[in-house]
Amino acid sequence: MRIDVVTIFPEYLEPLNVSLVGKARERGLLDVRVHDLREWTHDRHNTVDDTPYGGGPGMVMKPEPWGEALDAVLESGEGSPVLVVPTPSGRPFTQELAVELSGKPWLVFTPARYEGIDRRVIEEYGDRLDVREVSIGDYVLAGGEAPVLVMVEAVARLLPGVLGNAESHRDDSFAPGAMADLLEGPVFTKPPVWRDRGVPEVLLSGHHGKVARWRRDEAFRRTAQNRPDLIERCDPATLDKKDRSMLAALGWVLGEDGRFGRAVESVEE
Ligand code: JB8
């Protein structure tokens, strides 16, 4: 996969040289190219921003440098990339989207600063490319570079050969399949006793069926505790009998609408 990033802070993307993503690049599994947007300015001050039409606080990124930068990046490769625009007003970045993007040969990221990029840039390239305006969560950062680090790492670890073994993704929180919309439960390693705290017996039993059931129960327990919204929107038909009894034990009951809800008498903790 090829990834281009156009930014006014190329140094912000340095973490892409490190760890999993850095290794994937060294191994030739990922080709990352970071570009300085100011290379496509022509004035003495390398201006990339201007005041917003209609007034208001902050500055807006001028369209001309983005247009020249994106034309140059598009010219430098074969075919059309998916253009990923980080913005708090975008569609949520989810594991499902990470999986979809991991199947594309070429991604271009355009992290903005200030109040964002002049809308006409998104419209212009939206006429020619698959453009995705994406938000990594309901909070506001100072720019799109940190979201690019997040998204590139989420996508890169899904590329063939990047993680140790193909099974590594299967149990991820939010992984499509059995773990869709479930959080992963707790994990343990040696020593078997640490500061008087033992490891759940079932994990030492060598009984793979019991271990799998315990992990699924713990996934439900943690999901119900930390993300009740995921339980509320889950399709009960995807659950087996033991899943339902686990949820019942946690105080969840099927409602008239065929969805799970918290039983009124069930207590918080
Ligand atoms: C200017 O919080 B964010 C985010 C914030 C931003 C820009 C992009 C993304 C650009 N502020 O996801």
UniProtKB/TrEMBL annotation:
- Which CDD domains does this entry report, sorted A to Z? TrmD-like (cd18080)
Please list the residues that bind S-adenosyl-L-methionine: I136, G137, D138, Y139, V140, L141
Q: Provide the E.C. number(s) assigned to this enzyme.
A: 2.1.1.228
Q: Where in or outside the cell?
A: Cytoplasm
Recorded catalytic activity of this chain's protein: guanosine(37) in tRNA + S-adenosyl-L-methionine = N(1)-methylguanosine(37) in tRNA + S-adenosyl-L-homocysteine + H(+)
Cytoplasm as UniProt keyword: yes
Which terms does the record give in the GO molecular function aspect?
tRNA (guanine(37)-N1)-methyltransferase activity
GO biological processes: tRNA N1-guanine methylation
Keywords from the UniProt entry: Cytoplasm, Methyltransferase, S-adenosyl-L-methionine, Transferase, tRNA processing
The kind of enzyme this is, by top-level EC class, is transferase
One Pfam family this chain carries?
A: tRNA_m1G_MT
Q: Spell out the subunit comment.
A: Homodimer.
State the PANTHER family in the record.
TRNA (GUANINE-N(1)-)-METHYLTRANSFERASE
The similarity annotation says:
Belongs to the RNA methyltransferase TrmD family.
Which HAMAP family does the record cross-reference, listed alphabetically? TrmD (MF_00605)
Would you tell me the protein name for this molecule? Answer: tRNA (guanine-N(1)-)-methyltransferase
